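just leaving the lab so this will be short. what follows is a protein written twice so to speak, once as letters and once as structure tokens for the fold. can you read through it and tell me how you think this chain folds. thanks a lot i owe you, the record is right below.

___
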Amino acid sequence: MRYFLKKTNIKKGEYLQIYISEYKRDVGSRNRCFKSIGYISEIKDKGIKDPVAYYQAQVKKMNEELEEKESSEKAKKIGNQSPKRYAGYIVLKGIANSLTFFEKAVRALSNERQFQYDVYNLMMALVYARATFPASKKKTHEDIIPLLFEKVDESSYSQILSCCEYIGSEYDKFISYLTTSIKKTYGINSSETYFDCTNFYFEIDKEDEFKKKGPSKENRNDPIVGMGLLLDKNQIPIGMKLYPGNESEKPKIREVISSLKKENNITGRTIQVADKGLNCARNIYEAINKGDGYIFSKSLKKMSDRDIEWFKGLDISNWDIVYEKDSNGKNIEKYRYYTFTKGFNYSFKNDLGLNVTFTANEKRIITYNPKLRMKKILEINKMVDKARNLCLYQAKKDEFGESSKFVNFVTDSGKKARVEIDEEAIAEARMFAGYNMLVTSETQLSDRTVYNIYHNLWRIEQTFKMMKSYLDARPVFVSSLNTIKGHFLICYIGVVLERLLEFNVLGSSSFSFEKIMDFIHDFSLVRMDSKNYINLLTSNDEVGEFLEKHLSPEITNYIITPANISNFLKLKLNKRLDGFESV
């Protein structure tokens, strides 16, 4: 861009103008009038003897100033804060804005301590930051929270840790407040509850009273913390329990369900759904004693020798078959099942060491899944091949890992221990591959209904996956007991908000949690000028397109204004979007 003086001959004489010459890509050079000066004769009458020389000098000065400005802009250094801002978390904030009881309860509880910062605002900023860009608490404080649109009055990293420590010390109360708020806003259905456990490892080797070495889900040898998670019938998390990593998972289902019912005044009958790891006589006894029901899976391999012989004699060709259609519309076998109902005897030792025996009337459903069998056979063959290779050079026991189930470690008197392949164990594993048994107190339910209820457990596995992958809940880097609990509470709240968005607002069949989390990560803005932002969300984002149609058209605007942002932050998502009303 440059200025030049233009002299034009017209009827009244020579006329002077200052023009500006600009170059635009795909258009080329274009000249336009910047300023009209006047006729030379009239300018002379005002006392300027040589108007052309006079204004040429002015044009030269204007070009020099322009060059100086351009040089200054080219040499301009980057600022101390990124021009990028994260906006995808607004959908989670819309859920949180609807949970008014939760906010009021947290503020009431934290006001007793007279913190120098707003506990609720900082806690939720940590939740939004983890959902948007999971990072360490220090990086979250320095690089992530400043790029949110949240008004957080924290001013130091120590306040982040203080907040985590405080909410961790009261994490059971916070979960209770959150569940109560969910019940008031969206409702919960505890007629069926799904429970499972997992664990999280730490990047340290030292144990303490909470971080204990135990059976890690990742087969690591680091200290771990256990987590039990409870979902209602609609797959919404309504309870969480943290416990030392070396403790058994089995008592946790009793503790969580009992405390949940007490805190939320739930008096109706609950069907407890869990996998074989939580199937034990005491859990069955406690469920029956409290008027509840259960659906557990049971390992066929743990049956008595007599029952195994009975199982071998079953003619699978007479079982009921359930079909599904393949990609070509052809019916193929999904699974087949065999069912029977009778009384089964159980026994366990109570807390006083006394033996308790009882009989439970149960329906048991043995299922066979051909796809599962193929998968299991491949896994077994892989482990057997590993075991055979390790046996060739008599590897140490800890080298076998999971394949150790297919070998025997034999020690002869006075001789070195040797390793032998356990052919019986291999044959047994292959025989049971693809089979499973469901055990339920709900004898009046149809076999397929029991099967379908039990297989909703994959949702809780998906919830753990979300927490571990998209929210990076592990490895855990904080160390104090309450700060650890605060860290997991932040992850739990993030999961709850996403699940409410997915199932109660968008609809469970609309989008997977992966697509929702990708939208939260991808919907970001870059500052264009002192007020407005450029939207970096792409037009092929399915969640963004849906929200544009059913929530706010401005979400896909190329330019996002302060008014747009203000409206985003005020959204309340308390109902399905097909009936959404802006609040």
Remarks:
- Residues 374-432 form one domain.
